[in-house]
Design a protein that fits this description.
The chain has a 28-stranded mixed sheet, with no helix packed on it. A five-stranded parallel sheet has the order 10-12-14-16-18. The protein has 867 residues and is α/β, with parallel strands linked by helices.
């Protein structure tokens, strides 16, 4: 209380010469402003250590007139009419004292860091015409008191944390022209009372949580020019009165749950429609049915149309003879039929996107002649056929930057002129039936993405592609391209980020020039006939995905510790003959490591277990590794998480270059799981796999392997492992596949393994195991005899030989004793069993040969004398 009294006394001293009502009012206004000043300060970002100067430093009654303070404007009588402190930036809260500025007409505190609630006292500023609090951290509700502002013309509250419903009192702000509350947390139904604000020209309530349907009362908004309701939960029909409004220029209903066009839309005569609509955004809804047949005739001035990502069916309606559209986006629906020829009447179109539908027919060859302003053309993911449009028509598209026709049924060769469009940024012809050689000469100076993958292209990689300094993505995978990788690729394409040359017939080496591509993150050359690595990986710090698998690389592989960002390292199926380099242990982001099917020898570096916290797939199978499995295997951090989520945002699908729609299962990596070769995609979610099979490993399986409770697939088969099956394996509660076959393991099978409820594959065949197979016959039959064969096992069920009393457990004895104690003679049992199975045969036609084998086994089992 002392500080305000002191300020008031100071103000009275400053203004002591004046006794008019005006000067006293100025004193009160100055006091209100100083109260506001005390509640705010300059925002200082955490990365700036210095104290920032006070932006309101000249707010001092002792040194300057109030009307000269920063952000203040006064009328001729010296009363404050404007407080504009946009983007100072300020932090703190808005003082309720501003409500005493009775002559205030404009209050702009936008683009600051103010928090707290909007003071309800602002409703006392009866002359306020404009209130802008955009982009702060204000919370709470929009005050009901704002409805008292009868002079208010503009209310902008965008990008805050405001919640609750829109107050009904705003309906009294009859002069309101602009109402914008986008990007908040407003909820409840879209209020119909807003239809009473007939002077509104802008209504923006986008990106909130408003629901319900669009009120019919909005038809009364006779001055409305821009309506933005996108990013809410609105449902129902798209009102016809909005589409044919004589004032509305922009209608944004993107990203809601709207379901259909109104049936009234078809009843309006296009000749009588004088609508002004220029921008219509209806994408990302749930609109079903077909686009009205005369849709574009109803909207003669339309320049932008987006109906993308809906559930539309049927054909694309005619565009009319006087089309002025500049952007057409009908992508990601289930539209059928051909591309209408009338699209060629849209001579001003720059972006045409009809991708991800079910369109048929051919690409109009007149594109270049009629659509000379076209910059983006996308008809990918349809079923278009025929050849790629030939020049000279296409050559007239001098501004063309994006040309995407991938995943169709196009045939023929690629016109050479496409490789000489200097302004072309993206050329995507992937996944068609194109053939022929790539041209030796080209001029793609502006190309950033070239994707010709999964066609039947032949010839060699044009060295001229290396002249494209802006080349970011080059994908030639899945073709029949031969020859060597040109050294020019790395010499000039310094921006190269994504290079996929896999599944071709390339020979030779990885050229040394690729080591100059310091931005390279994805390098995939799998399934070729490459034999040598000349490139140096030490300068490629951004490498994330490296796939050299299924080639003929041999000798040593020199790996750099600088590539610490690498997540996928796949060297499978080559001829590498070396030890595993310890430099891998510095790849701390590594998620998948495969050296399988090589000639790797020596010991496994122990640092792999302790230094790679993200490692989830280790496949070192089919090599010549020696030594023991170290106890430090229990340090594999990522294998210890029993609660790994399959929807992990850092999951496999987010690793660049791993997804491959044409590959089996949608990914480029496959593995052996449960005895079958399976695509990686089928098991990628939450995957943890450890495969050391088909090596020369010795010694016992360490007990610390039981610490890896998140492991799902474990394969140690075809080694020389000895000792017993450790009981610690029964702690691997997530285990789905366990293969210990073809080793030298001894002892019994731990009974607790049957408690692993997720175990779907189990194999301990061809070891030196003995004793009784678990008490559960169900466990045995679940995995079949082949999973246990090649051992000295016995059991209490067919076809295992019965266990002697010296080798059976008490539980096994209980399983068989009840029958032997209640049968007096072998002959009586044989007769009874034959009679029983004969009856069953009459009913279900049982194979007698198999049944007799079962009978003989049971007789031999239970009739043995007990010791």
């Amino acid at each position: 209380m002392a500080a305000p009294l002191y300020c008031l006394c100071l103000l009275l001293t400053v203004f002591q010469g004046g006794h008019s009502q005006s000067s006293q009012s100025s004193i009160l206004e100055a006091s209100a402003l100083l109260e506001f000043k005390r509640g705010v300060k300059a925002f200082s970002p955490p990365w700036i250590l210095d104290v920032l100067p006070d932006p309101l430093a000249n707010w001092d009654v002792s040194s300057t007139s109030l009307c000269n303070w920063t952000g203040i404007a006064c009328n001729p009588q010296g009363r404050v009419v404007s407080l504009a402190l946009s983007n100072i930036p300020l932090t703190g809260q808005i003082s309720s004292s501003l409500g005493s500025l009775e002559f205030l007409e404009l209050l702009n505190l936008s683009y600051n860091y103010l928090s707290g609630e909007i003071p309800s006292t602002l409703g006392n500023c009866a002359r306020l015409q404009s209130l802008d609090l955009t982009l702060n951290n204000l919370n709470g509700k929009i005050p009901e008191s704002l409805g008292q502002l009868s002079m208010l013309q503009s209310l902008i509250l965008d990008a805050n944390l405001l919640g609750g419903e829109i107050p009904s009192s705003l309906a009294r702000c009859s002069r309101l022209q602009k109402l914008s509350c986008c990007c908040n947390r407003l909820s409840g139904q879209l209020p119909s009372f807003l239809g009473q604000l007939r002077n509104l020209t802008l209504l923006d309530l986008s990106h909130n949580s408003l629901n319900g349907s669009i009120p019919r009362g909005f038809a009364n908004l006779s001055s409305l020019e821009e309506l933005n309701l996108e990013g809410n939960d609105l449902e129902g029909e798209i009102p016809t009165f909005l589409l044919v409004s004589k004032t509305l220029v922009g209608l944004h209903l993107h990203a809601n749950n709207l379901e259909s066009f109104s049936s009234e839309f078809q009843e309006i005569s296009p000749e009588n429609n004088q609508g002004r609509m220029e921008v219509l955004e209806l994408g990302y809804n749930q609109i079903t049915g077909s686009i009205p047949s005369q849709f574009f005739s109803y909207l003669p001035g339309l320049k932008f149309i987006s109906l993308r990502n809906n559930n539309l069916t049927g054909g694309i309606p005619e565009f009319g003879d006087h089309c002025v559209l500049e952007t057409i986006n009908l992508s990601t629906n289930t539209l059928t039929g051909e591309i209408p020829e009338s699209v060629l009447h849209c001579s001003q179109v720059t972006k045409l996107d009809l991708s991800r539908n079910r369109l048929t027919g051919v690409i109009p060859s007149e594109l270049g002649r009629n659509l000379s302003t076209l910059t983006n053309f996308d008809v990918a993911f349809n079923t278009l056929h025929g050849e790629i449009p030939l020049l000279p028509e296409i050559s007239k598209l001098e501004q063309l930057s994006y040309f995407l026709i991938s995943t169709n049924k196009l045939v023929g060769t690629i016109p050479v002129e496409y490789f000489n469009m200097a302004n072309l940024g993206t050329l995507d012809l992937a996944r068609n039936n194109l053939w022929g050689s790539l041209p030796r000469a080209c001029n793609l100076a502006g190309i950033s993405k070239l994707d010709l993958s999964f066609n039947s292209l032949t010839g060699s990689i044009p060295s001229c592609l290396g002249n494209s300094s802006s080349l970011w993505t080059l994908d030639l995978s899945g073709n029949q391209i031969s020859g060597e990788i040109p050294s020019s690729l790395g010499a000039n394409a310094s921006q190269l980020y994504y290079l996929d040359l896999s599944q071709n017939r390339l020979v030779g080496s990885l050229p040394a020039s690729l080591g100059n591509c310091s931005s390279l993150s994805i390098l995939m050359v799998a399934r070729n006939q490459l034999g040598k690595i000349d490139m140096d990986f030490s300068q490629i710090h951004s490498l994330v995905h490296l796939d050299l698998s299924h080639n003929e690389f041999e000798g040593d592989l020199v790996l750099s510790s600088n590539t610490s960002n690498i997540r996928i390292a796949n060297f499978r199926d080559n001829r590498f003959s070396m030890t595993i380099p310890e430099s891998i242990c510095r790849w701390t982001a590594l998620t998948l490591l495969s050296f399988s099917y090589n000639q790797i020898h020596g010991f496994i570096p122990s640092c792999i277990w302790s230094s790679l916290p993200q490692l989830k797939v280790v496949d070192l199978s089919q090599n010549r590794l020696t030594g023991n499995i170290p106890g430090s295997i229990g340090e594999l951090i990522s294998f210890k998480d029993v609660n790994s989520r399959p929807d992990d945002p850092e999951g496999w699908h987010n690793i660049p270059g791993l997804a491959c729609p044409e590959c089996p299962g949608g990914m480029r990596f496959e593995m052996i799981i449960k005895g079958s070769r399976l695509p990686f995609a089928q098991y990628f979610n939450g995957l943890t796999l450890f495969d050391l099979s088909s090596n020369l490993l010795e010694g016992a399986i360490p007990d610390d392997i039981g610490l890896l409770v998140g492991m799902k697939y474990l394969n140690l088969s075809f080694n020389g492992l000895t000792g017993s099956i450790p009981l610690a394996l029964t702690r691997l509660v997530k285990l789905e596949s366990l293969d210990l076959s073809s080793n030298k393991l001894q002892g019994t099978i731990p009974a607790q393994i049957s408690d692993l409820s997720q175990l779907g594959s189990f194999n301990v065949s061809h070891n030196h195991l003995s004793g009784m197979v678990l008490a559960s016959e169900l466990f045995y039959t679940k995995f079949g005899p082949s999973s246990f064969e090649g051992n000295n096992l016995c059991g209490g069920f067919y076809p295992l030989q019965p266990c002697s009393n010296t080798s059976t457990s008490t539980q096994a004895g209980r399983e068989t004793s009840w029958l032997s104690e209640n049968v007096s003679t072998k002959g009586f049992l044989l007769g009874a069993l034959l009679g029983f199975f004969g009856t069953i045969h009459l009913v279900v036609f049982v194979d007698w040969k198999q049944r007799l084998q079962q009978i003989n086994w049971i007789i031999n089992h239970i009739s043995k004398p007990r010791r």
